[in-house]
């Protein structure tokens, strides 16, 4: 499963760069400023969490299996999908019902950071 998450992180970085370019060149002037900002927020959070997901995978590779780090990687991946994905869809479709999904993705990000801290602490002891 670890290799799948590693690969997913690489693909997520590719998608973040592509969607960032799409926002900068394809959406300016086509979306209301607030929706464009939401889309760009999704791109930023996706890239930041893609990088921490990669780092978490490297930690697992370096330190060996650690349940907290493994679950942190799953939480970061789910956060990217729910948080950034809901912002992309909201911006492109204006479907307001997607709004409540975004904070759920944020909770997965928070959980991921907490599990990452726990995994680092476990490795240090």
Structural account:
By secondary structure, the chain is mainly alpha-helical. It has one domain. It is 86% helix and 0% strand. The protein contains four helices and no strands. It has helices at residues 2-27, 33-63, 67-93, 101-124. α2 packs antiparallel against α3 (67-93) and α3 (67-93) packs antiparallel against α4. The chain is elongated and about 50 Å long. It starts with a helix and ends with a helix. The relative contact order is 0.15. The mean pLDDT is 94.
User: Helical element count?
Assistant: 4
The SSE string, one letter per element, is HHHH
Portion in beta strands? under 5%
Number of strand segments: 0
Average pLDDT rating: 94
What is the 3D shape? elongated
* Distance linking N and C termini: 26 Å
Low-confidence stretches: none
Largest sheet: none
Helix content: over 70%
Number of domains: 1
* Structural classification: mainly alpha
Radius of gyration: 16 Å
Feature tags:
125 residues; mainly alpha; 4 helices; 0% strand
């Amino acid at each position: 499963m670890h290799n799948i998450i590693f690969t997913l992180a690489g693909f997520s970085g590719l998608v973040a760069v592509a969607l960032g370019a799409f926002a900068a060149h394809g959406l300016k002037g086509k979306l209301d400023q607030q929706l464009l900002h939401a889309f760009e927020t999704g791109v930023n959070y996706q890239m930041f969490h893609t990088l921490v997901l990669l780092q978490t995978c490297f930690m697992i590779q370096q330190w060996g299996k650690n349940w907290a780090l493994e679950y942190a990687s799953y939480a970061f991946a789910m956060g990217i999908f729910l948080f950034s994905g809901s912002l992309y869809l909201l911006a492109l479709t204006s479907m307001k019902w997607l709004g409540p999904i975004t904070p759920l993705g944020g909770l997965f990000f928070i959980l991921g950071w907490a599990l990452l801290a726990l995994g680092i602490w476990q490795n240090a002891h």
